[in-house]
Amino acid sequence: MYRICRILCIHKGKRSDIVHRFSKSYTHWEPCIFKPSGSREQSTVYPCISKSISTNLKWSRLSSSQCEEDCSRTNILNQVSDILSSCKSDYLLEIFNDFKVQEDTHMQACEWSDIIDKIKKSRVNIGMSWVLPVTKSLCVIGHYSRSKSLYDYFKETDSRPNLPVGCLIMESCAENVQEIDVHKKMIVDVYLDVKPVVDMLPDRIVKQVIKGVLVTEFWTDSVDMLFGLSGDSEIYSCVTAKAIAMENQGVFMQILKKFLDQNLAPNAEIYNAVFKSPTSDSLIEPLIQPLIEPLFDSMENGRWVLPLSALDSTKQWLMRQNYAVSEAKVTYRKTCSRCGQTVKDLVVTDSEFDLLSEAFIERALIGEDVFINTKPRELKDFLNFLEGSDVRTNYNVVVDALNVAYALRANKRSTYWKSNTLKGVVEKLVDKGMKILIFGRQHMKKWPTENMDYIHEHASLYYLSNQSSDDPFLLYAALHAGKDCYILSSDEMRNHKFLLGTELGRIFVKWQRSRQMTWIKVGGSLQLKMPQTHDTVVQKTDNSWHIPYTDTDDDCQNELKSFQLSNNWVCALKH
């Protein structure tokens, strides 16, 4: 056996752990180098931290499929070890040392009965805690028939199926796409047991059922199960992609509406399923065409931003429609950097603003939000302060003092530098001719007067108690002042969007994007960054499309609710 250790493989600038090749016995290890098939580039291999490597060691070069199989096998053994270690039973590890060199077979109930007796004897009070780890481990090593036999054992001996075991098997079989035909009957058998009680199962298990059902003829049942779940963009996207593959426009439209109702954004899987180029059937594209307009309409209504990994398929679809496609930015003049067209303004209407202001008082300020950390008397004093004869006309920007003061890392321990940073920001706001209301905390009264005197001279300050949540007061003050008032804070205010619900939450985000100022750090100071004035939604004219997209796939959900958006656009002009 070779004595080797961890090796790193770097190909095309990407670094990944290289693993070792092992024989059918899973005991003899050989080193290998990852080399993607068809690549002309040489992979660079770096042995590291090895105390003893034979000088005549010859590295074997493997194809991409061989290396992926080896990676999978090594990961399998590591996963099984991690999963079973939670059971703290040496006997379970012995079982899997036997299982891994055996063929996957359907075990009899008497065989499982003997094994279960030994498991219970291997550790006191192990109870049934071993069941799911063992099932998961069997699925990890690809022994689906053996795991199904464990499910059948419980079904026979307890006169009822062990549903968590069955649902885990369904999900695992569905993920094993190379052998899906072999395991489809297994999934159906379990699903027919689960179906009568699926409404009573936890969301986590229902998601496993949905993933299993999607690969069977019962896939349309997943739609009803989906609508009983709390918001989960990933599982919605899985069902939507299946509806697209099955050319079921009705289900597709239902789920788009569900995305909008739940204020979720679909992931790249849906866009790629709609926009992908037809590969084997030239009739596919006409069938997909009716899905395009509803998808774009939903993107606009839900303010969805295209995920980065769906960018290529979207551009290819546009090119197939005879558009000249390029990537672009929107300039500060609200024009496309490629074609020069003006994009839509970000506008909050008077009626939307009035709805938002009234709802915020009822659901966020007077509701549970504030009184968790404040007293009714403080709220009353605050409202009296805002209704003062000169206060309403004295500010058009509301500042979160501590959020600004702590923006520079060096400020954390020094009240002088905290107050100095706040003073610097106030100076910049004064230079812009803005009237300032600052929300601070009682302890700020002890900050150095050399900075605070300037702040008091040029701004109104309202000090909340040290325990109060300042965001609701900040937001209410801005809404109270009217549509033209700005907020200066880097806080996303996510909790308050949630309290407002889906539709008002969208209005809140739109208002926030149009009125919330923030900053960028330049050296040892903060430079103010004004809010955007253009709308970041899909925009279509007679001869063009402008589609915003994210910096990363992870931003897909974040950008739905964030006031700070990336400035990435697809510009498509009709030939």
Structure description:
By secondary structure, this protein is of the alpha/beta class. It is 49% helix and 13% strand. It contains 24 helices and 16 strands. It has helices at residues 64-85, 90-99, 109-122, 131-140, 144-157, 163-175, 180-194, 203-213, 221-227, 233-245, 249-261, 268-275, 284-302, 311-320, 350-365, 368-371, 376-386, 401-405, 415-431, 449-458, 470-481, 494-500, 502-515, 555-561, and strands spanning 7-11, 14-18, 20-22, 29-33, 44-47, 60-61, 323-328, 397-400, 436-441, 460-464, 486-488, 516-522, 525-529, 539-540, 544-549, 568-574. The strands form 4 sheets. It has a 6-stranded mixed β-sheet, sandwiched between helices. Strands 7-16-15-14 form a 4-stranded antiparallel β-sheet, covered by helices on one side. A hairpin with a 3-residue loop joins strand 14 and strand 15. Helix 4 runs parallel beside helix 6, helix 8 (203-213) runs antiparallel to helix 9 and helix 10 (233-245) packs parallel to helix 12 (268-275). It is globular, with a radius of gyration of 30 Å. The N and C termini lie far apart (64 Å).
- Largest sheet report: 6 strands, mixed
Are there runs of 5+ residues with pLDDT below 50, and where?
Answer: 1-67, 279-283
Helix content: 40-55%
**Gyration radius over CA:** 30 Å
Count helical runs.
24
| Main β-sheet, spatial strand arrangement | 10-9-8-11-12-13
Q: How far apart are the termini?
A: 64 Å
Query: How many DSSP E strands?
Result: 16
**Judging from the principal axes of the Cα atoms, what is the shape?**
globular
Structural class call reads alpha/beta
Strand content: 5-15%
Average pLDDT taken over every residue: 76
